[in-house]
Design brief:
Strands 3, 4, 5, 6, 7, 8 and 9 form a seven-stranded mixed sheet that branches. It contains 22 helices and 16 strands. The protein has 668 residues and is α/β, with parallel strands linked by helices. The chain is flat, with a radius of gyration of 41 Å. It has helices spanning 60-63, 67-148, 154-165, 167-170, 183-191, 219-233, 309-326, 338-342, 344-352, 370-373, 390-397, 410-416, 422-427, 462-474, 498-509, 525-530, 550-559, 575-581, 608-614, 622-631, 633-645, 650-666; strands spanning 35-36, 42-43, 203-207, 237-243, 254-258, 263-267, 270-281, 284-291, 333-336, 401-404, 432-435, 485-490, 514-519, 542-546, 562-565, 585-588. Strand 1 and strand 2 form a beta hairpin. Among the domains are: 206-438, Rossmann fold (3-Layer(aba) Sandwich), CATH 3.40.50.2000; 462-648, Glycogen Phosphorylase B (Rossmann fold), CATH 3.40.50.2000. GO terms for molecular function: alpha-1,4-glucan glucosyltransferase (ADP-glucose donor) activity. Its EC number is 2.4.1.21. It holds the Pfam family Glyco_transf_5. Residues 203-425 form the Starch synthase catalytic domain.
Length: 668
């Protein structure tokens, strides 16, 4: 390293060579300037003493050069000295910059490492929960197989299932390789665990005919899947039993396999074989019943709509119960759905609870005794008394009946929407519980929606304005955030008063409102709906979308100020629920869709959604909503933000109502 004493912070400009015509040479005394190398050698102006250089005070003639030449040599050496110093300083600066960059790089790597550690810890935590659920399902399936092959009794299997389902107690000591053990070794491991701890969760089995995303015809499919996932997130163990349809997309099933032993069920006076397939759909264990003799029952192009639907689903209901009994499952709750599986109610109580007391000559078709059931207080239809009403049987023979209704209270359902079962529901009204449908708030949440150009929430609504402009740009609408934008998502499921719709649109567009018509029908209902407003489509503020994709669908909810709804009770599309979450007011095409103003309901046993929607948006027409936005914008914004903060997902009221119903059954 070069060491130079008395070096200024700024390197001076090199001295200009003297002009021999103007500069008069003066005697210059030599100074000893040296640089010490790492090896100890001297370097610099005078690295070694020259034999021609003599000590101070000698005559210039002794040096061997003239004064003029000596001066020039010294000035040149000084210039080289400054140049070398400058180069070394530049080198030091470069080294300093490199050191700073290395330090910054080290800090960045440190931050990345800390973030990675945090991410791995989170993955480990999440993975532990997923691994536990996977292990639980694997153990339960192994128990099913052992029961069907006679290795273990149904009673002991039931006790072990209860142990496994209490994950906090039962899974703590299980080795990771337990599922690779032979049946005998696995059973020995399980028997080491005690089932003395109190069971804190429910084992729920849904016997149903639809499940999203496997088979979806109506609202039942999303209801079964949404509720089941919500229940499992709250610590309950849920299974589903359903037919194995020909049209089912089995790619959605994880770990699909056939249960080793064939099981038999009773139907039409004989035992008939069935194959059972098991797998996992969205974290829910599913068992699929596949008839062998009656193989045509579920190998058709449609789920419903055949003359023998009663025989098809009666067979499935009986086969489901037979499978549960023979596999040793003892769930806390059998959850049955609609008329197709309502017969499970009388089957369970009249056959399976008392099956050891029944005589074979009393059985017919699926094993029930028609004379004993064709009675007014059982399955006899209230109006057509020569027929039996299967749905009525489900009500009569169930311990609890959950009615899915978004808008109406228990008393109004019994009085006006019972479909001929008013008397039956009145007798069994203490069984009834009312639950709203939910929606998937993991896929529909504006605060973390990847389809949106900018996310937002009730506390920070800036992103909604960005989404509105993005929607206007996408649809080539005049972009103006102050313009009210109304989205209308429609399908063939509801009838629309075309004349009324045209009047609504004409009145709104005259006020500068923008409209987006979104058709998600599977047929040409768009043409039927929009033909009433065809002349209005020429307006630059009215746009129709055909074949909208998922990203645009999310943007419509986020960019709209109002979502015009065909009905506020929408269990299939769940448009009102999504609209509330995205800060778009759900306004019915006809306000009478909500509870009429003159209707006095003294029974307050209605859902939170019904109370919320009927006290606000449900009573408004589109014209009234526009007046509110124009005249009371601050109050309107508060309504929107309050709505966004409400939780109407599957995890909220819907799940709570069902858990309360299951708890009531347990306490009977």
């Amino acid at each position: 390293m070069l060491v130079v004493s008395s070096l200024n912070a700024a390197i001076p400009s090199p001295p200009r060579p003297p002009n021999p015509c103007t500069v008069r040479p003066k005697p210059v005394k030599a100074r000893a300037v040296c640089c010490l190398r790492k090896n100890g050698d001297l370097n610099g102006l005078y690295g070694k003493a020259s034999p021609n250089v003599r000590s101070e005070g000698h005559d210039n003639a002794d040096v061997g050069q003239s004064p003029k030449g000596e001066l020039e040599v010294k000035q040149g050496d000084i210039w080289r000295l400054f140049s070398e110093a400058q180069q070394n300083i530049l080198y030091l600066n470069k080294q300093r910059i490199m050191a700073v960059e290395e330090l910054n790089k080290a800090n960045r790597e440190k931050q990345l490492l800390l973030a990675r550690i945090k991410h791995l810890e989170a993955e480990k935590h999440d993975g532990a929960g997923k691994d536990t659920l996977s292990l639980c399902r694997g153990l339960l399936l192994r128990l099913d197989s052992m029961v069907l092959t006679g290795i273990i009794s149904t009673g002991e299997a039931s006790d072990l299932r209860r142990l496994i389902m209490d994950c906090k107690v039962g899974m703590a000591g299980f080795p990771d390789e337990i599922l690779q053990k032979r049946d005998a070794d696995l059973l020995a491991e399980l028997r080491h665990f005690s089932d003395s701890s109190k069971k804190t969760c429910f084992h729920i089995v849904h016997i149903c005919t639809e499940m999203e995303p496997l088979v979806s015809v109506g609202s039942l499919a999303s209801y079964v899947t949404g509720l089941s996932c919500a229940l499992q997130r709250k610590g309950h163990f849920v299974e589903v039993v359903m037919p194995k349809y020909k049209t089912m997309d089995l790619n959605e099933v994880e770990g699909l396999r056939e249960v080793e032993a064939e099981h038999y069920s009773y139907f039409n006076g004989q035992l008939h074989g069935n194959k059972v397939w098991t797998g996992v759909v969205r974290g829910i264990g599913v068992s699929f019943i596949q008839p062998l003799y009656y193989s045509s029952f579920f190998s058709r192009e449609k789920v419903y709509g055949y003359p023998d639907d009663f025989e098809r689903f009666t067979y499935f209901s009986r086969a489901s119960l037979d499978y549960l009994v023979k596999s040793g499952k003892r769930p806390d709750v059998l959850h049955i759905h609609n008329w197709e599986t309502a017969i499970v109610g009388p089957l369970f109580w009249d056959i399976f609870v008392k099956q050891c007391l029944e005589q074979p000559d009393k059985l017919a078709l699926c094993g029930l005794d028609p004379p004993s059931l064709h009675l007014p207080d059982r399955l006899q239809d209230n109006n057509k008394t020569h027929l039996v009403n299967i749905l009525k049987g489900g009500v009569v023979y169930s311990n609890k009946v959950v009615i899915m209704a978004s808008l109406h209270s228990k008393s109004r359902i019994i009085g006006s929407f019972s479909h001929g079962l008013e008397a039956t529901l009145s007798i069994h009204k203490d069984k009834l519980a009312i639950s709203p449908c939910g929606f998937d708030n993991s896929a529909w949440n504006p605060s973390k929606d990847n389809f949106l150009p900018e996310t937002y929430c009730a506390e920070d609504m800036k992103g909604k304005a960005v989404c509105k402009v993005a929607l206007q740009h996408h649809l080539a609408l005049p972009d103006n955030t102050s313009t009210v934008l109304v989205g209308f998502i429609f399908t063939e499921a509801f009838d629309i008063d075309k004349g009324n719709l045209k009047a609504i649109v004409r009145n709104a567009t005259s006020r500068g409102v923008q409209f987006v018509f979104v058709d998600i029908s599977k047929n040409s209902s768009k043409d039927r709906v929009l033909e009433s407003v065809q002349d209005l489509l020429k307006d630059e503020n009215v746009i129709s979308i055909d074949g909208v994709d998922e990203a645009v669908s999310h943007l419509v909810f986020a960019g709209s100020d109002i979502i015009l709804c065909q009905s506020l009770h929408d269990p299939v599309l769940q448009v009102p629920l999504k609209a509330l979450k995205y800060g778009a007011a759900p306004i019915p095409v006809m306000p009478t869709d909500a509870v009429p103003r003159h209707f006095v309901d003294h029974d307050y046993d209605s859902t939170k959604f019904a109370q919320f929607i009927n006290s606000g948006f449900g009573r408004m027409s589109l014209s009234q909503a526009l007046d509110e936005i124009e005249n009371n914008p601050a109050r309107w914004r508060r309504k929107i933000m309050d709505a966004m903060k409400m939780d109407f997902s599957w995890d909220a009221e819907c799940c709570d109502v069902h858990v309360s119903a299951y708890t009531a059954i347990k306490n009977l």
